[in-house]
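We emphasize that the prediction below concerns an isolated chain of 337 residues; any contacts that depend on oligomerization or on bound cofactors are therefore not represented. The input was used exactly as deposited, without trimming of termini.
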Amino acid sequence: MRTATNMRLSMRTLLIAALLPLSLPLAALEGHDDYKLLKLDGYKLKWGEPELGVGARVSYAFADETLRFEDARNCRDLTPIQALSEQGIPNEMLKRETTAAFALWERAAGLSFHRVRDARDADIIIGAQGSPRGRAFANVSYQSEPEAGAGRVRTIEQAQVCLNPERQWKVGFDGDTDVYDIRYTLIHEIGHAIGLDHPGPTGQVMGFRYTEEFAELQAGDLEGVRRLYGDGSEDVLPPGGFDMQLASTGSNAHNANDLIGNSVISTGAGKEIGSINDFIIEEDGSIFAVVVGGSPLYGEERVALSWDSVELARDADKGGTVIRVDEPSLLPVPAEG
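Result of the prediction step, given as a token string:
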């Protein structure tokens, strides 16, 4: 087991409770009726610059070995996320749902998330609980030595999200609130990991009671995350330095962030190929292919589809984007690096 206390230095740590069927006491918080910001030792917490309303770029990774965070009050022991596959969530599906959960927050505010391979390099680490209890928790650590002019805001240094591998999980809502939807749970815990806390029991994704009344961020969630990171009008560019707009202008424009996590349908086979989890980019910045994860149709873990074979359309009834391919053109998927 690797001890992770030296991964990030000069930290103070905050326990954050999971989604619960019952109320728990809340930490000292700042907020309004519909949102509350995390506060520890009197400081508000956020990623990036210690200034409210300023965006940030944040990396995440899945634990692929057992890690121990000695100073953590929660998620102290993280084990590989693959442990959740024993509860009916295949690893590729979990990664897809995680990507979609991050994308929801990314679209809401001035945030950009990207996945890295090595958890030791990640800002947010997602894993299974080494000592299972409850459903899911998050732990946030912040820089104890403030930057000049930081005032009452501190920069988050690292966060962990841990899920109970002994609990049953599901994908999607079915009315059974005793079994939690994995994406909704991840959206909630990621909210903690970026600086939000429970505003109350219900009405928002950040409410501490699990609900299946809504799957999207609510008004208070949006107001809270935008208080921390702005509304995204000034784009926070990903590490590559560009934000991919897939069509030129107007109501038919598509943004890459809107497509991550969306299913691709084969019109010929009438079946889902899988969900988009990456793009292959040419040197000039144009899109060469979309990478689809977990493809039961082709029996591959990941397949790449030529961008020219993909058709995008707005769903006038349900909203969002419909992604179809007529005759899929399969391409090799580059090795992750």
